[in-house]
Design goal:
By secondary structure, the chain is mainly α. It has one domain. 74% of the residues lie in helices and 0% in strands. The chain is built from 4 helices and no strands. Helix 1 packs antiparallel against helix 2 and helix 2 runs antiparallel to helix 3. It is elongated.
Length: 85
């Protein structure tokens, strides 16, 4: 299960980076979310899923990323695709 968590986090961040204007705070939030997701993935690979600090840290990091994404702007390439260009 850890591999799925890791792959989903990596793919999501890669997709977001290709669609939004990156600012330092958003980049930091993405890095934090990736690190926390990786720590959770490692925890999941080691043992059966239980409530853990890694899970809590991942949720906090993802919530922080969500806050920053609410104010993110689409980059020029994403705007063109959104308009059918």
């Amino acid at each position: 299960m850890g591999g799925r968590v890791r792959l989903t986090a990596e793919n999501t961040v890669a997709s977001l980076r290709g669609q939004i204007v990156m600012v330092p705070a958003l980049e930091m939030a993405m890095t934090d979310a990736l690190r926390a997701s990786d720590a959770l993935a490692q925890e999941l690979d080691r043992r059966a899923f239980l409530q853990s600090d890694a899970r809590t840290e991942a949720l906090l990091a993802l919530n922080g990323l969500i806050v920053w994404l609410k104010s993110a702007a689409l980059n020029a390439g994403a705007k063109g695709r959104e308009l059918g260009g």
